[in-house]
Every structure is written in C-alpha cells, then in structure tokens.
Amino acid sequence: MKPARASAVRPRAVRTEHPLQWLADPLTDEPTFVLKSWFGGRTIMLHGMHHLFLSAQGEPWQGVLVCTFHEHQDSLRAEFPALVQHPVLKKWLYLPEAAESFERDAKRLVQLVRARDPRIGIPPSPKKKRAVKKIRFGDTL
Which of the pair, 41 or 106, is modelled with greater confidence? Predict the structure, then answer.
C-alpha cells in the first residue's frame, strides 16, 4: 500500500453548529436527548418525540417551531403571545427570532420541554417500509 500524501487526504467535513443550538444546551444532560439534523434545521428530541425545531433559513423559517397538536395551540398561545401558527406548517406554532421576547420565550419553551409539558411534543412518523422487489434466478437485472 502506498503512503498517502498529505495533499491527497481530505479532511472530514465538520458539522457546523446551528445558530440556535444554545437552546438545546440545557437539555444535553437528559438521558434521552437527541439533537438531530432535520429538514435543514435541528430538531430537539426527548423521550423519542420531536419537541422543538430550530431553524435559521430566513422567514418564515427563522426561529423556533413548537411541535404540538392543534388542541394545545390556544393554551400555548395564551401563555406565549409571540407564538403564531406557522404560515406553512399550520399544525405547529412558530416563535420568530425577530420577536421582541424571542430569547425569554425560547428559554421558557425549553424549560417546558424539560418538565415534560404534555402540550409540547409529537411522535415521529413511522418509517415507511421500502418495497422489496423479489428477484428470481434467471430474471434480467
């Protein structure tokens, strides 16, 4: 085997830190905590459920999306006036980073996630099974 030249070795791509990743920091000591890349942002998962989606892709994807069901939206919006229904993903609430109370409200949402508030969190969609094409001997590939 030939020794590799330094110029031939490609450095491993380092995943950049998300600008809103500081919101996940208080949850890192939770045993079921997962911060996962998801649709161009990061999802905060605890106990196998999506709770908050951190996005920094420009409006209307610049802030925190709260993963919740429709029946919980009114009570969350009463507690957090800056929360609005997301204009694209209407099933979730949106805390825009441009909101005056963004930092305070985002930290409070993280506290509710840590306290397992039943209004926040949705289970992930079940993975779809891929159709397996059975190949028999003699079939053309």
Answer: 106
For every residue of the chain, which 3-state class applies, written as one string?
CCCCCHHHCCCCCCCCCCCCHHHCHHHCCCCCCEEEEECCEEEEEECCEEEEEEEECCCCCEEEEECCCHHHHHHHHHHCCCCEECCCCCCCEEEECCCCCHHHHHHHHHHHHHCCCCCCCECCCCCCCCCCCCCCCCCCC
Lookup: tokens for 113: 């996630």
| Residue pLDDT, tens place only, 99-136 | 999 999 999 999 999 999 999 999 988 877 776 666 66
Structural domains of the chain sorted by starting position, each given as residue range(s) with its CATH number in brackets:
17-114 (3.90.1150)
